Amino acid sequence: MKAPPYRIFLSPPFLTGAETAAMNAVMDSNWLAPVGPALTTFEEDLCRYTKAPHAVALQSGSAALHLSMVLLGVGPGDEVFVSTYTHNATVNCIIYQGAKPVFIDANPGSWNLDITILEAALEERAARKKLPKAIIVVHLYGNPVDMDRVMALAKSYKIPVVEDAAEALGSTLNGQALGTFGDLGVLSFNGNKIITTTGGGALLTSNAEMAKKALFLATQARDEAPYFQHSTIGYNYRLSNLLAAFGSAQLTKIDDFIAKRQLNFQLYSFFFKRMEEELGYPVVQAQYLIDGASSNHWLSCFVFHFPSLAEQVIAALEKAGIEARYTWKPMHLQPVFESYEFIGVGVADHLFESGVCLPSGFQLTHLEHHEICTIIKKVLLENL
């Protein structure tokens, strides 16, 4: 039998060995789905790790985003301010509710939502008495948004905030877990995230009533009755008992997973610093961390100062069987969202054109890292 082609993936999952034992225990109990003790344990584990008072485990981060809009009463005619530099799931949840996204540009340093632009946009909307129904901020690639500024603004205008922390489990701001600053926080356990349940997500909140309603809606909105009765439209959004056990096993190793991804980022940064010294000028820009912030560096991403290099680096790595990707294409540039309002000056456009996400997985070896950097160096020396 022929061996499969060698390939280094961008962000593959890593199994610790404990997942099999955890799932076998659930299968032995025959309590697979929809809910059960392992699901309760996983939610308790998430609360313990993030210090969030309440966690509701769901089938996906997208489900958590959608429920956040439902819980906040977002509906037809409403506007929701949202980061443009993100994955489309952050915006789809707004469209599901018949509301309109208003895209806010990225900050050139942090790449997160530009809070100065957000502030000006809120002031303008307030003058027109047309404030958004909610604000969704995204902790891009695990890099913390300045939530103190965001929450101060939101409080002054009485607007709820949803934190899309799908990429940011384990990142903190002044010691506080991301996803616990806003009214609602969203986590993802997709296969490429810091920890995985193979698929899955969670909704975090400090509001007991919201947590209770999220649980109700996520289990088909079944009324308290001795038969199946429904007075509200609900969703089949709960995570299974089996996959919850998988998640709890993964969570025991999260500190190791984060430390390795942070090391990956440091090694890439050191390489690019050496290239700067060799060439005599900087080659890339990384995300700027605000004071008090700690990033999980879910992905190691860099923006090249020379736009054409992004395409060439990705192509050269792909030729060697190494997966690298462009950074997120801004939502206001997506064909499906191009009719919606964008507020900004095109910073996100530039970041997308010149940005590259490099392999960042837990199992990336020093030898593989050296191979990646050698290929990038060759591209740089041939084109600069």
Keywords, separated by commas or semicolons:
384 residues; alpha/beta; Aspartate Aminotransferase, domain 2; Aspartate Aminotransferase, domain 1; 2 domains; 8-stranded mixed beta sheet; 4-stranded antiparallel beta sheet; 12 helices; globular
User: Beta-strand level of the residues, as a percent range?
Assistant: 5-15%
Proportion of helical residues: 40-55%
Beta-strand segment tally: 15
CATH fold type of the largest domain: Aspartate Aminotransferase, domain 2
In short:
With 384 residues, this protein is of the alpha/beta class. The protein has twelve helices and 15 strands. The longest helix is centred in the last third of the chain and has 26 residues.
SSE blueprint and pairings:
Blueprint lengths: L17 H12 L7 H14 L3 E5 L2 H11 L7 E5 L5 H8 L3 E5 L10 H13 L6 E5 L8 H11 L3 E4 L7 E2 L2 E2 L6 E5 L12 E5 L2 H11 L22 H11 L2 H26 L4 E2 L7 E2 L5 E5 L3 H12 L5 E2 L15 E2 L3 H8 E4 L7 H18 L1
Parallel strand pairs: 2-3, 2-4, 3-14, 4-5, 5-8
Antiparallel strand pairs: 1-9, 6-7, 6-11, 8-9, 10-12, 12-15, 13-15
Helix pairs in contact: 1-8, 2-8, 3-4, 5-6, 10-12
What would you note in describing this structure?
With 384 residues, this protein is of the alpha/beta class. The chain has two domains: 18-253, Aspartate Aminotransferase, domain 2 (3-Layer(aba) Sandwich); 255-383, Aspartate Aminotransferase, domain 1 (Alpha-Beta Complex). Helices cover 40% and strands 14% of the residues. It has an eight-stranded mixed beta sheet, with helices on both faces. A four-stranded antiparallel beta sheet has the order 10-12-15-13. Helix 1 (18-29) runs antiparallel to helix 8 and helix 5 runs parallel beside helix 6. The chain is globular. The termini are far apart.
